Amino acid sequence: MDSILKRCAIRSALRKPTPQRFSLERENWPNINFFSVVLKSEAEQPRDVLVLDMTQSSISGLRWNGQRYEEEVELKISELQNMTLEITHHFRQLRTRYDSAVDYFWGQFTFLRYRVLLKEWWSQKRFNSRLRFRTDRIEVLKELVEVYLRGVEGDPLNFLGNGGISAWDLFQRIHGQRALDHPAFSSAFARFELILKSLVDSNDLSMDGDLRYQVKPQSLRTIAEFELEQQRHNDHVKHNRRLVWLTAVIACAAIVALIKPS
């Protein structure tokens, strides 16, 4: 029974096989709708096989060589019972994996791809409404210092210095990957790049030939000066609040003294 289900699932998925060439770029999302069928085995031979075709008696495909699916192979239908079926549905920007024939048919019957797509659309919509692009120079500088320190902590003995990070990676690190699909992404990222370049001009950062930004010692001084100025500002605000309260208390006391009968 299990072998029959696998054959039916493979035959169904191969109606929309993996194309030889395809692009995952955003503009091509509406055209993406295909399945990749892989048979997995614990045995030495055959090892993971990407299924390309199936007849009544055999299955043909490409075997994984450790780097890519390349070696042509043909399996007997009877070998299906000892192999695990994995079907991946590439639908627009999403990938849904089914680990068995039952999972595959249930996903198709319940229109899982559309439910996942709707959930993704709703999550992105909520994210877009809540996200506020924060492009403060000090925040960007602090994030770069954090990247540097994490590099040291990750491998302190073999850390070779400040490898830097690209503007693209840093933007995703601060705002998250969903920010790339935000309607205002282009203008926000352009402003973000200007901030990084301004930090280079102020000698807080440097930029190498690969457009990767690295922190410089000056950045710590800039952050310290900002935090000191921020603390002074906060102390000034607190002091002014105390004066307001004190003035209010004195005013109330004066009013009470005026209306108090002699």
Strands, helices and their partners?
Elements: H1 2-13, E1 33-40, E2 49-54, E3 58-64, E4 69-76, E5 84-91, E6 94-98, H2 101-109, H3 112-130, H4 137-154, E7 165-166, H5 167-175, H6 185-201, E8 205-207, E9 212-215, H7 218-259
Antiparallel strand pairs: 1-2, 1-5, 2-3, 3-4, 5-6, 7-9, 8-9
Transmembrane segments: 242-259
Keywords: Membrane, Transmembrane, Transmembrane helix
Account of the 3D structure:
The protein has helices at 2-13, 101-109, 112-130, 137-154, 167-175, 185-201, 218-259; strands spanning 33-40, 49-54, 58-64, 69-76, 84-91, 94-98, 165-166, 205-207, 212-215. By secondary structure, the protein is an alpha+beta fold. The strands form 2 sheets. Strands 4-3-2-1-5-6 form a 6-stranded antiparallel β-sheet, with helices on one face. Strands 7-9-8 form a 3-stranded antiparallel β-sheet. A hairpin with an 8-residue loop joins strand 1 (33-40) and strand 2. Helix 1 packs across helix 2 (101-109) and helix 4 packs across helix 7. The longest helix is centred in the C-terminal third of the chain and has 42 residues, at 218-259. The termini are far apart.
Keywords:
single chain, alpha+beta, 2 domains, six-stranded antiparallel β-sheet, three-stranded antiparallel β-sheet, 9 strands, 19% strand, elongated
The count of domains is: 2
Query: Count of DSSP helices?
Result: 7
State the major sheet. 6 strands, antiparallel
Order of helices and strands: HEEEEEEHHHEHHEEH
Number of strands: 9
Principal-axis shape equals elongated
| SSE-based structural type | alpha+beta
How much of the polypeptide forms β-strand, as a percent range?
15-25%
Question: Taking all residues together, what is the mean pLDDT?
Answer: 78
Question: Taking strands numbered 1, 2, ... along the chain, how are they ordered across the largest sheet?
Answer: 4-3-2-1-5-6
